[in-house]
Amino acid sequence: MTDEQYMKQALREAQRAFEDDEVPVGAVVVMNERIIARGYNQVEKLNDSTAHAEIIALTAAFNFLGSKYLPEATLYVTLEPCVMCSGALYWSKIGRVVYGASDEKNGYRHITQQNSPFHPKTIVEGGLLSIECASLMKEFFSRKR
Description:
Helix content: 40-55%
Largest sheet: 5 strands, mixed
Strand content: 15-25%
Structural class: alpha/beta
Order of helices and strands: HEEHHEHEHEH
Number of helices: 6
Radius of gyration: 14 Å
Number of strands: 5
Strand order of the largest sheet: 2-1-3-4-5
């Protein structure tokens, strides 16, 4: 599968969040060309402000592998990670992070202006399917207003 196909899987997870009336963010963790974990925002459902898609996907990946580190894995997430998720990704030593839409309000780039909050070996790429990822967010918030 390609990066785009994996991001489409993350978008499917975001759609699940949307249908559950959660902020529509989805994530998948890929290792050796295989999805090993999935997650979507469940903050409202679990009454837990840390239940972001990335955290849920990371926990599932750790459990699947029986390891707390993911240096050979890639996380695909539909929205730029926040600082909390960036910290979790830092500690996971994940090899690569690919995100879709930028988060002008809460994304790590807008909070941490100087240094990357990711592990020094982590490759970070943004903007993949950003229009599709952003449109789901816009639709969600337009319905809320």
